[in-house]
């Protein structure tokens, strides 16, 4: 796939950047439908920014503290557009997006959530699955809407809950599945967006 045909993806993150690394590794293994062009964060000291720089990505960071949500999102929006981003991928971005931002990128924001949506929207998903006595946990890639973790689900992966699991052990296994699921789902989404068959 020629460089100009790849969808330009901007990644928003707040933490370690493990999903960013997985997206990059998948992209480098063979020709894919997307390119990562920017990593932006609301946490200037986020480990994920170090990961991004190591990968050769442009980065942008500013703390969201002491700034209104809509104004902060306008800053991110301007940076994404300055880099000609076409699709936004949330990868551990621990901040709700403003309705204005979501409207501006409608149908072009993806998120990876650590549950089998529509179960367990929001936080503490693994502890909630264990407390409910579920047999399965997992992760979901979905389109972002202005309702929390409520957009159309594009892909899911299931993880069997083991008898001795706690929230940490379950989270670690779900994260492994996130690293497999998200790159593939993003690639297929971008291929369809560009009008090409998924690779």
- Under CATH at level 1, the class stands as Alpha Beta
Q: CATH homologous superfamily, by name?
A: Formyl transferase, N-terminal domain
The SSE string, one letter per element, is EHEHEHEHEHEEH
Number of domains: 1
Inertia-based shape: globular
The strands making up the biggest β-sheet line up spatially as: 3-2-1-4-5-6-7
Structural class: alpha/beta
CATH topology: Rossmann fold
* Count of beta strands: 7
Average per-residue pLDDT, rounded, comes to 95
Radius of gyration, taken over Cα atoms and rounded to an integer in Å: 16 Å
| Total of DSSP H or I helical runs spanning 4+ residues | 6
Helix content: 25-40%
Q: For the record, give the distance between the C-alpha atoms at the N and C termini, rounded to a whole number.
A: 10 Å
Low-confidence stretches are: none
Summarize the structure.
By secondary structure, the chain is of the alpha/beta class.
Question: How would you describe this structure to a colleague?
Answer:
The structure is a single chain. The protein has 199 residues and is α/β, with parallel strands linked by helices. The protein has one domain: Rossmann fold. Helix content is 38%, strand content 22%. The protein is built from 6 helices and 7 strands. The chain has helices at 18-29, 47-54, 69-82, 99-104, 125-131, 167-194, and strands at 7-13, 34-41, 58-61, 87-90, 109-113, 136-143, 153-160. A 7-stranded mixed sheet has the order 3-2-1-4-5-6-7, sandwiched between helices. Helix 4 links the parallel strand 4 (87-90) and strand 5. Helix 1 (18-29) packs across helix 6. The chain is globular. Pathway: Purine metabolism; IMP biosynthesis via de novo pathway; N(2)-formyl-N(1)-(5-phospho-D-ribosyl)glycinamide from N(1)-(5-phospho-D-ribosyl)glycinamide (10-formyl THF route): step 1/1.
